[in-house]
Design brief:
The protein is 80% helix and 0% strand. It is an all-alpha fold. The relative contact order is 0.14.
């Protein structure tokens, strides 16, 4: 992964995470409260995404799974759900410009970073859709059980 990810994100993870969470809470205002269990859980999962995002590993997959599992059950339209991953490049640019003057982004670093963030977003989308499919299947199964019970009562 890029020099920027390895250094800036790893060394300044908490500051970047704080900026990302601020954007997330604005993005999902009215849906996710700042001091809620959901926000805390998302913060922990997003910290893991930042920690492991520079490499392919099981921990990254688990972190993405945690994020998308939380988002899949929220009353947020699917088009907005993964928008938080589109906010990360802006957060990193802001941080590189304002928060870490000695961590200037080179064009090659930015291109590599953008590519990596696109890969993470696509993996998050796959995970999100898996969770949504599971929720849909659970709803179908519950409806089948209810219908079966109603038929049994009608026969009795």
């Amino acid at each position: 992964m890029s020099h920027f990810w390895n250094n800036a994100i790893t060394e300044h993870q908490q500051a970047i995470l704080s900026l990302w969470m601020e954007r997330l809470l604005v993005l999902y205002s009215g849906k996710i409260a700042a001091n809620s269990f959901v926000a805390d859980s998302l913060s922990k999962a997003l910290a893991d995404v930042l920690r492991y995002g520079g490499k392919e590993c099981n921990e990254l997959s688990e972190a993405l799974k945690d994020v998308t599992c939380i988002l899949a059950v929220q009353a947020i339209p699917p088009s907005q759900t993964l928008a938080l991953f589109f906010e990360l490049p802006a957060v990193l640019r802001d941080y590189a410009v304002k928060g870490a003057p000695k961590q200037k982004l080179k064009e090659s670093d930015m291109d590599e970073l953008q590519k990596r963030l696109e890969e993470l977003t696509l993996k998050a989308f796959d995970s999100y859709m898996m969770h949504r499919e599971t929720i849909s299947q659970l709803k179908v199964d519950e409806m089948k059980r209810q219908l079966f019970m109603q038929l049994r009562r009608a026969e009795a």
